[in-house]
Amino acid sequence: MMCEPYRIEGRGLPERVTVYEVGPRDGLQNEAAVVPVEVKAEFVARLAAAGHRVIETTSFVHPRWVPQLADASELLDRVERVPGVRYPVLVPNERGLDRALEHGVEEIAIFASATETFANRNLNRTLESQFAMFEPVVARALGNGLRVRAYVSMCFGDPWEGPTPLAQVVSVGRGLLDLGCYELSLGDTIGVGTPGHVAALIGAFGGPERLAVHFHDTYGQALSNTLTALREGVTVVDASTGGIGGCPYAESATGNLATEDLVWMLHGLGVETGLDLPSLVETSTWLAERLGRPSPSRVVQALGTAPDVKE
User: Fold this and answer.
1) With contact defined as beta carbons under 8 Å apart, do 275 and 263 qualify?
2) CB–CB of 249/222 below 8 Å?
């Protein structure tokens, strides 16, 4: 059983890609059952040990909306922060920022919508008025020395509105960057994007600077979309160990791009990630046992039961 792919350097690709791990937050928030906080803390520790340098740990969303992350404060108290590893958290508003500051968080993320309907359903705001909610959060965070990342959902399509106009995504994205966010993650929340669409959207932004990508695999396009984004110059890719997660506010959103599937492809292309694939597979197998279901990741399915997976 092969535990690492045969490496042949791909043309037109970056030498190194940063995998922005979202499993503990975006992955676990969509689980039907609440995962014990001690399991979450071990999950985060295992991810750091596997080589991750960015682990989105939790969210300070109101527990009424995302009960799976109601233990955010306790989790942050339990996590032993490894030097050189970033542990950002998602915050929806100023109250969330207050809690993040109380726990010594050094980096936050905010969550916007590229469509009117999703902004209303997810944020109870219009496409334009959502910025009034973000402005004080970003300003205060920057004033306290925090880094701020921005997510934009429904960048490729919306289940209620259909395909999202490129100009609309760019308008929202540039507005967030203008607030002072250091990076913009373009989210294919329901997984309808295709490689041509990805290239067109990055081109509409004028290039890949300050852009990251976040793909869901609803239509099996996540890896091909990622490869296209890399060829367009993007070097930061969001992924979830084991492929767990989705979006609790969009029923058609299935799991995230699996970190292991991404790493298998990147390592096969000679792109460095700093991640240890066998350790990731072992972690996903361990987590799947605690979630009571198999990992959606194809690489985990292929390697998870291999007796020599650690070799």
Assistant:
1) yes
2) no
**DSSP secondary-structure letter at 1?**
-
280: containing domain: 18-303
pLDDT tens column, 261-310: 999 999 999 999 999 999 999 999 999 999 988 899 999 999 986 434 33
Strand pairing category for 162-163 and 157-158: antiparallel
Task: Give the model's confidence band at 166: pLDDT under 50 very low, under 70 low, under 90 confident, else very high.
Answer: very high
242 part of a folded domain = yes
Helix axes 222-231, 195-204, angle to 10 degrees: 40
Does any domain span residue 262? yes
Q: What is the CATH number of the domain that holds 74?
A: 3.20.20.70
Which amino acid would we find at residue 85? Answer: V
Per the structure, the count of domains in the chain is: 1
Task: Please report where in the chains the tokens 């469509």 appear, as a residue.
Answer: 115
247 labelled catalytic: yes
12, part of any domain: no
Give one DSSP letter per residue of 104-162, joined into a string.
T--EEEEEEESSHHHIIIIISS-TTTHHHHHHHHHHHHHHTT-EEEEEEE-SSEETTTE
Tell me, yes or no, whether 57 lies in a domain: yes
State the catalytic residue, choosing from 3, 155, 181, 247. 247
Q: How much is the mean pLDDT over the chain?
A: 93
Model confidence over 121-162: pLDDT tens digits? 989 999 999 999 999 999 999 999 999 999 999 999 999 999
* Size (the chain), residues: 311
